[in-house]
Write the C-alpha cells for this entry.
Amino acid sequence: MSQDAVPVTVRILDKEYRVACQPEEQEGLIESARLLDHNMREIRQTGRVVGSDRIAVMAALNIAHELIQLKHAREKTDLDADQRLSDLQRRIADALATQHQLDAGRE
C-alpha cells in the first residue's frame, strides 16, 4: 500500500470490505464491486449454488470468461483492421504505380 492509497469501503453480497487503492482508481474499484455484487446476487438467486465462497468463485469465473471473450473479440477486430489496412495500402501502391506508368507514357 503506497502512501497515496486511500481506504475504500465496498459492499458485496451484504458484507463490507475495506480495500486500499489509489484515489484515481477509486471509481473503478467501486464499479468493479458493483459488478461483482450484481453477478453474485444473480447466481445466488438461481439457487443452484450455495455458500458465499462458491458464489464468489462462480461470479469470478463468469467475469473472467467475459473478459477473455472480449479480449479474443478485440484481437480478431485488430487482425481484421490490420488486414484491411494492408489491403488498402496495397491498393494505394497499385494505383500510384499505375498513375506513374500513365504519366511516364505521356512524356
User: Anything to note?
Assistant: The domain at 6-106 is CATH 3.30.160.880 (Double Stranded RNA Binding Domain).
